[in-house]
Amino acid sequence: MKVATARVYDQPEPGDFWVLVDRLWPRGMAKQDAPHQLWLKDVAPSSALRKWYGHRPVLFDEFARRYESELSEAPARDALVTLTSLARQEHLVLVTATKDLEHSGAEVLRRVIGRRGDGAQTGPGRG
Q1: CA 83, CA 90: separation in Å to the nearest integer?
Q2: How many whole angstroms from its chain centre is CA 35?
Q3: How far, CA to CA in Å, does 114 sit from each of 50, 51, 66?
Q4: Three-class SS of residue 122?
Q5: Please, which residues have CB within 8 angstroms of residue 4's CB and are 6 or more apart in sequence?
Q6: CA atoms of 57 and 76, how far apart (whole Å)
Q7: Would you state the pLDDT for residue 125?
Q8: Separation CA 58–CA 88 (nearest Å)
């Protein structure tokens, strides 16, 4: 199982299965131009958590803890099960519009899926 992260504005590589994991549609992108195959907005951090975090890296550890807590409840839990299943079958790329992949919800998801995958190999973002 291999899971990576990428920005939605990047280009997919052959064989990748891209899943948009943002709650909001990316700015400036027409739906017909979207490079991902699936949009799972239910797995994204809640609006309240996203606003609290504000993409401030100093808050990332607490954001990750709170986000992982949200992932234990429906509907996020169900979407996480879908992602984990996809990661067992595909080269999964978690796609986000966030500029800072290292401190993003997609990175938290990548780590969580890796732990659920029984020794899954996961890698950092591509861009």
Answers
A1: 10
A2: 15
A3: 22, 26, 18
A4: strand
A5: 16, 91, 92, 93, 94, 110, 122, 123, 124, 125, 126
A6: 23
A7: 55
A8: 33
What pLDDT score does 120 carry? 43
Token pair 């500029």 is found at 99
pTM: 0.89
**How far is residue 96's CA from residue 113's CA, in Å, rounded to a whole number?**
16
C-alpha torsion angle, residues 63, 66, 67, 71 (rounded to 10): 170
Q: Token pair for residue 46?
A: 């809640």
In the structure encoding, which two tokens stand for residue 38, read together? 């699936």
For position 33, what pLDDT does the model report? 84
How many angstroms separate the CA atoms of 29 and 51, rounded? 22
Cβ proximity of 29 and 8 under 8 Å: yes
Encoded tokens for 75: 């509907």
| Total length of the chain | 127
Residue 95 near residue 102, CB atoms below 8 Å: no
Residue 93: CB partners within 8 Å, gap ≥ 6?
A: 3, 4, 5, 6, 12, 16, 17, 18, 19, 126
